Protein 1
Amino acid sequence: MKIEQLHQLFLECQSACTDTRKIKIDDMFFALKGDNFNGNTYAEQAIQNGAKYCIVDETEFNTSTQTILVNDVLETLQALATFHRIFLNIPIIALTGSNGKTTTKELINAVLSQKYITTATVGNLNNHIGVPLTLLSMTKNTEIGIVEMGANHQKEIEFLCSIAKPDYGYITNFGKAHLEGFGSVEGVIKGKTELYNFLIENNKTIFVNGNDVIQMEKSKHANTFSFGNNANFNIKIEFIEAQPNVKVRYNNLIIESHLIGEYNFNNIAAAVCIGHYFKVEDSSIKTAIEAYIPNNNRSQVLTKGSNKIILDAYNANPTSMQAALLNFEKLNDTNKIAFLGDMFELGQDAEVEHQNIINLIENLNFQAVLIGENFNKTTINSNKVSIFKNFDAFKNEFDTSKLTNHTLLIKGSRGMAMERILEML
């Protein structure tokens, strides 16, 4: 079946789905394969659950008028997403970077939603499957699409751009993330700037943080719209303070966010800049950012009993960990403890990067509890640091009943699931 014909069938459906447990009536089910599953075997169940059509790539499962046999389900999903994106012909903003992608995406979506009907990546569905699903979630009513792109190897962003064909792009930053796949920070920069390369080659527009030297250098041959804290850029956005939450000044407006940490300034500024570019009213930009409440373990501020908790446990890498710790140091609170879990996907740099975090902590003014095999291999020279080999050891040996009237930072890579500490308080 040609992609044009498949797209006509897709337009009869409510949405695309790859999980029979989440199917809605009249969805199109894509029978993807993984290391431990074969979606083809769920085709019949998908139909029973309400799917209008099922896309399969094994002949034995092409058993009804509702199943459609293709050569490769994943490739078909990606090709259909690109066809649908071209069919809709709406502005697509692509977003990548080492840290802050999802928060920035949510802020941009909040701002643009003040004026437009937007569709944005849900959660962090930002890979070779998530990006197509995001594109296919866009409808004829969508006026602007916002697509988050993640990567841990070279050429991944390039491939995602070939699917989404963005008109605009923004890179949050370049940091020590996914070093195992990228090889080095230089590899990270090369991989992330694949977004810039696509936009430059296609004469599209890049949003640039004018305070970021790397962004300025890598986008110098592009159509750009920049923001920064002085008048040299298209739009001036100034950082005011980060205590207790980040405040910025824009066009004589003071915007008071619910986000903690000076590192969130650029995330807010990018949303302001993009809102300004798309002619969202200043007052609406302020309203959107001030109404945004962080969630899903990202920069959340919680209270449990007498303790204040900064829950930033969705993920971690050396760059984001350092930023979180330096922000934690600046808090005026007393009785501060940082609970940190291992950082993953660092490859041969894992040992030195975890030791760097230890060295940083030993020069800061708070206690730290470190959990994980990587931290367990480090050397400590201070009694302000405690280390547990894994979470079970921590749970069995650490007495959380002593934590009263404390301010706690909780951060670690996703695989560490550091939010489990909340259950112990």
Note: The chain has a mean pLDDT of 93.
Protein 2
Amino acid sequence: MLDNALRKAAAVWVRPAGHAPRLVWALWRDGAVLVAVGGTEQVVPGLADGVACAVTVRSPTTHSHLVDVPATARLVDPDDDTAAALRAARLNTRPEWADVYRLEPA
């Protein structure tokens, strides 16, 4: 169910431990949620390498709750294909991020 839900979701709620949830655009790739932050991109207070997070997925059509997933944030240096996919996912913007985190389901 998680894989199917995240393939369709363009945005998810991310709650780093000790912080409020934040709605963020995200990309599901290779079994994890990728979130670009900083620079001209979104800010997610508390998101750091090794931090436990909760990821909440809602239906893109009905906005009903689909699934909550515990995850661990891992700072990554995206390869060229991943960076291109992140840029393509933003559609009408030219994203410039400071960091990319891979939220790996527990």
Note: DSSP finds two helices and seven strands in the chain.
